Amino acid sequence: MHQILSATQEWTRSIHLHEGQDVDLPVSELDQMSDSERVAFERSLTASSSDSLQYVFDTVRISAAITDGRPVSAPMVAVHRFVNSAPFLRFVSQVSGMTDLAFADVMATRYLPGHFLTAHGDENPRERRRLAYVLNMTPQWRADWGGILMFLDDDGHVAEGYVPAFNALNLFSVPQTHAVSLVSHLASTPRLSVTGWIHAAA
Ligand SMILES: O=C(O)CCC(=O)C(=O)O
Ligand SMILES: [Fe+2]
């Protein structure tokens, strides 16, 4: 999976604008800009956000593509099938004690230096998200590279922080306030994951 995520050309850069509105831009187009042009453009988009939620990261919206009938590569379809397989959903149900889990959605994510996700709770009024999951696919990562999955307490302090550990699953109930800290320019490799939410039946 790490090799597939490292090699795929399917990434779009996702930048949050407002509630329910993201801009998804093909990374291949952004790469035609100079670094300074691209950074200025991305900052102008995040600066126009009126939300406390802000993010910039790369994604392959696997489940959304399948639902919309957009092309997605065979390994991505296999990932969608895996997180919706009876053994995976049964395992998650056993770990969480939740008995109403019906299906999972999934996206691949890639955080490069400068990418981040500010504090949010994962609630979506249009969906019944019960759990969030992150399958970490970065072979080696260091805490001082950023990209830490942080859980915040009521005072805004970091109550728990998880460094991406290869092949580790982070699983947590929705809602809980969490964020992904800014990835440093020191990170010598992308932070790659397979992530999404596990839903109760609609
Ligand atoms: O990548 C992570 O560790 C968490 C991502 C996340 O919270 C999200 O996409 O909503
Ligand atoms: Fe989240």
Please give the structural blueprint.
Elements: H1 2-7, E1 12-18, E2 21-26, H2 27-30, H3 35-47, E3 55-60, H4 62-68, H5 74-83, H6 86-96, E4 101-104, E5 107-111, E6 116-120, E7 129-136, E8 149-152, E9 158-162, E10 169-173, E11 178-180, E12 191-200
This protein binds 2-oxoglutaric acid (AKG) and fe (ii) ion.
The site of fe (ii) ion (FE2) has 4 residues, from loops.
Protein name: 2OG-Fe(II) oxygenase family protein
CATH topological fold name: Jelly Rolls
How many strand elements?
Answer: 12
Uncertain spans, ≥5 residues at pLDDT below 50? none
Please work out how many helical segments DSSP would assign.
6
In terms of quaternary structure, what is this?
single chain
Assign the structural class, choosing from mainly alpha, mainly beta, alpha/beta, alpha+beta, or little secondary structure: alpha+beta
User: Biggest β-sheet: count, sense, barrel?
Assistant: 12 strands, antiparallel
- Quick one: overall form? globular
Q: Spell the H/E element sequence.
A: HEEHHEHHHEEEEEEEEE
What binds here, in terms of ligands, is: 2-oxoglutaric acid, fe (ii) ion
Residue-averaged pLDDT? 95
Helix share, percent: 25-40%
Describe it.
The chain is an alpha+beta fold and 202 residues long. The protein has a single domain, classed as q2cbj1_9rhob like domain (Jelly Rolls, Sandwich), CATH 2.60.120. Helix content is 25%, strand content 34%. The chain is built from 6 helices and 12 strands. Strands 1, 2, 3, 4, 5, 6, 7, 8, 9, 10, 11 and 12 form a 12-stranded antiparallel beta sheet that branches. β8 and β9 form a beta hairpin. It is globular. It starts with a helix and ends with a strand. The model has no long low-confidence stretch (mean pLDDT 95). It binds 2-oxoglutaric acid and fe (ii) ion. The site of fe (ii) ion (FE2) has 4 residues, from loops.
